[in-house]
Amino acid sequence: MAKARLMQVVAARLPKEVAREIERIALDEKVDKSTVIARAADQYIKEWKIRKAIKLYEEGGVTVAKAASLAGLSIWRFLEELGRRKISVRYSAQEFIEDFEVARAEQIR
Fold first, then answer.
1. Is residue 63 part of a domain?
2. Whole-prediction pTM value?
3. Distance CA 81, CA 70 (A)
4. For residue 10, is it within any domain?
5. Domains held by the chain: number
6. What is the pLDDT along the chain (109 residues), one digit of tens a residue?
7. CA angle, corner 67, sides to 80 and 69, nearest 5?
8. Would you say residue 96 lies in a domain?
9. How far apart are CA 6 and CA 32, in angstroms?
10. Nearest-angstrom CA–CA distance, 70 and 54
11. What is the end-to-end Cα distance of the chain in Å, rounded?
12. Which of 24, 26, 61, 93 counts the highest number of beta carbons within 10 A?
């Protein structure tokens, strides 16, 4: 069962064409416009978190485990995302040990 979310009203100015597309999608999917906008915002936020985590990882500021956590992904899913984006994985021995322990803990949960 889906968890109920607290909602907040947010006003935004959108180009007319975008507003028309939102209405078209809402009619097609038989949902209200707020649902379409909320879904789009959720998708954007997820993608933004992944991009931000990847940037920090590429700069050497975080390990794979930390980047995965920042992105809201499991280590395995984050590694898949790096591969999909053709970003090479770099590891020191210490990072590997730390990430292995985190990954093992994820498997136990």
1. yes
2. 0.76
3. 13
4. no
5. 1
6. 567 778 898 888 999 999 999 999 999 999 999 999 999 999 999 999 999 999 999 998 888 889 999 999 998 899 999 999 999 887 777 777 877 787 777 776 6
7. 95
8. yes
9. 17
10. 9
11. 20
12. 26
> What residue type is 17 in one-letter code?
E
Query: Does any domain span residue 36?
Result: yes
Domain residue limits at 61: 16-108
Residue type, 54: I
DSSP string, the chain: -PPP-----------HHHHHHHHHHHHHHTS-HHHHHHHHHHHHHHHHHHHHHHHHHHTTSS-HHHHHHHHT--HHHHHHHHHHTT------HHHHHHHHHHHHHHHH-
